[in-house]
């Protein structure tokens, strides 16, 4: 049985004012009475796809994973696949029982873990997914969304409250739980300067006391949060409304450096009427790390850089599309070439 792959769309950051205005102007905004804030886990984008014959495949951000070695973290993928394969089928059965038109589900989440200092029962010889936030010594899967396909080819997302009811019944206990529920304005104001809640909530681990005083205001600081309405809300272009709010340590933009003395930066800034210095804010190592988390650590560098460039331009375009479109094509090509140059440098630094 073939499985239809549906890529999980990039989530827009909370600081894009134009995006927030579009949300407030959307036709269903007034119906979204409550907004839900959940922790954003620092891991690899990962999903289970279950089709109507109850066969299961797993996927990364961009494709179905056929070779675990090529994705990277082979042990993590094997461990999580084995743990949740039957539970994914059970979840499909539960959803299909409620709606017999359902022909496929995709369970989206984060592949994470592999290290926690006070928990020694995991696999110390394996490489953790990431070290910036510590969750658990074993690898695990954190569910944050479920999408369904129907017989007529259409699809739908399950709301948070439906997930909160159905996931535990299928054996998925590690999933996005509310840190806050309230108005749109209050959800956006949620203070993300918090230690990760994952270790204590799901694994009963004691809190960590050590922190990097230069970068972390609290120990084991969370990556950030995801903000969604309690109903499925879409913009006029069809995009689903999901917002992320990250801690400064994990932000994918930097402050503008208009005083760069590198010749290429000076020339591009002049040719773009200063727009290059704004675009360069989006060209960061954190963004490349995020790209790797989406594509897997064994993705080839050309694919990583291409995805990195697309991500830079996509986010930059949220607020600057009109200005960018007015730059002549040749200059835009030069700017993109410079973005790719930085991308290759970041990839090689990470090796």
From TrEMBL:
Matching Gene3D superfamilies: 3.30.1490.70, DNA ligase/mRNA capping enzyme, RNA ligase
Residues covered by the RNA ligase domain: 33-245
InterPro entries named in the record: RNA_ligase_dom_REL/Rnl2 (IPR021122), Rnl1/2_C_sf (IPR041948), Rnl2_C (IPR040609)
Spans traversing the lipid bilayer: none
Pfam families: RNA_ligase, T4_Rnl2_C
Signal sequence region: none
UniProt keyword list: Ligase
The protein's name: RNA ligase
Upper taxonomic lineage: Eukaryota, Discoba, Heterolobosea, Tetramitia, Eutetramitia
């Amino acid at each position: 049985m073939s499985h239809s792959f549906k890529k999980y769309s990039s989530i827009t950051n909370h600081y894009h004012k134009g995006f927030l205005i579009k949300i407030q102007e959307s036709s269903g905004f007034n119906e979204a009475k409550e907004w839900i804030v959940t922790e954003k886990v620092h891991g690899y984008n990962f999903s289970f796809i279950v089709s109507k014959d109850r066969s299961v495949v797993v996927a990364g951000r961009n494709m179905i994973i056929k070779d675990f070695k090529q994705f990277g973290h082979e042990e993590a993928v094997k461990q999580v696949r084995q743990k949740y394969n039957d539970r994914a089928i059970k979840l499909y059965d539960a959803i299909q029982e409620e709606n017999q038109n359902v022909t496929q589900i995709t369970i989206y989440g984060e592949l994470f873990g592999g290290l926690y200092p006070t928990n020694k029962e995991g696999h110390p010889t394996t490489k953790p997914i990431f070290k910036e936030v510590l969750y658990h010594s074993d690898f695990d899967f954190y569910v944050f969304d479920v999408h369904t396909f129907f017989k007529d080819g259409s699809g739908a997302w399950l709301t948070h409250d439906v997930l909160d009811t159905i996931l535990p019944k299928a054996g998925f206990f590690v999933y996005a739980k509310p840190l806050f529920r309230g108005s749109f304005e209050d959800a956006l104001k949620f203070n993300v300067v918090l230690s990760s809640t994952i270790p204590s909530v799901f694994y009963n681990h004691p809190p960590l006391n050590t922190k990097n005083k230069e970068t972390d205001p609290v120990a084991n600081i969370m990556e950030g949060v995801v903000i969604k309405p309690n109903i499925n809300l879409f913009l006029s272009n069809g995009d689903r409304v999901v917002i992320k709010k990250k801690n400064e340590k994990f932000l994918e933009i930097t402050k503008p450096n208009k005083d760069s003395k590198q010749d290429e930066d000076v020339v591009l800034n002049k040719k773009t009427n200063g727009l290059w210095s704004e675009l360069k804010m989006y060209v960061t190592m954190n963004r490349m790390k995020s790209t790797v988390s989406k594509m897997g650590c064994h993705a080839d560098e050309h694919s990583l850089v291409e995805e990195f460039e697309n991500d830079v331009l996509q986010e930059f375009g949220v607020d600057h599309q009109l200005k960018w479109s007015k730059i002549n094509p040749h200059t835009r090509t030069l700017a993109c070439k410079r973005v790719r140059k930085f991308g290759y440098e970041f990839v090689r630094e990470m090796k």
